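yo

u said u wanted the structure for the complex thing, so here. seqs first:
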Amino acid sequence: MMVRDATGEDWPAIWSFMRAIVAAGETFPYDQEMNEMQAREIWLSHAPARTVVAVEPDHTIAGSAKMGPNHGGPGAHVASASFMVDPSRQGKGAGRALCEHALEWARSEGYRAMQFNAVAESNTQAVALYRSLGFEVLATIPEGFRHPTKGYVGLHVMHRRL
Amino acid sequence: MMVRDATGEDWPAIWSFMRAIVAAGETFPYDQEMNEMQAREIWLSHAPARTVVAVEPDHTIAGSAKMGPNHGGPGAHVASASFMVDPSRQGKGAGRALCEHALEWARSEGYRAMQFNAVAESNTQAVALYRSLGFEVLATIPEGFRHPTKGYVGLHVMHRRL
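structre next:
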């Protein structure tokens, strides 16, 4: 699984799964009604942030990640990142490849830690992946996420030093 | 201390202290170099978010707050808020008035909780105020804030149910 910088030409492929992931409302705290322009504005980052795609050997885009400073100024030495994997391409390692890539990038850019602000605790697959890569749950916002079928669940703040 | 909605006409007064607060880099994780247009874009909110000012009896603007959803979609039922008080007008209750106002507003809008994402633990006055209003520290991001004289200090995530 190769990970490379995303370009404008990758957007239609990214949107094809991002649209479904956002509309499902099971994992991302994004407005489920967001339109394509808003989604593109949120997802395709500009420096110092960055957006990448995970590409399968047959050139299919299996997932995407964005990464950058979690806060500005005196908080800009801690990175954050978000990951989306095409639901039809799950289980092939795209999520892990993207997360490992983000960690390496953040380390090489001199960030001191990486933090995820909003990981739904019901998203057990993502929580397990992040834990396996050294993240720990620093806090769980009680009832911070409203899952469409599970109701209010906790929202983890996850962190690891780099 | 009266709290009312901010208007465009309040901006010069807000910027007069916001500029100094941001440049000092002691409390807000904002880019210290931000210019007036960027600051205005960040601070003057649009619905569903909202910006208010605290006004003294002589009509002086002593502080300002912005408040709104902390996340979108499935996370939009938790509010967040930020507060700035003119350093030359501290100790007159503007911070408390703004925070109480934000809590009442969030409650009336149906939010279930309020969360602050980035409270520098060195900002003991703010931490004490928030605790006195029912907030607790859910987590402290280790070394999450780089204070100009104290070096790396923790960054609190604070929360209270409404």
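The longest strand of chain A covers residues 136-147. Residues 94-108 of chain A form the longest helix (15 residues).
cya
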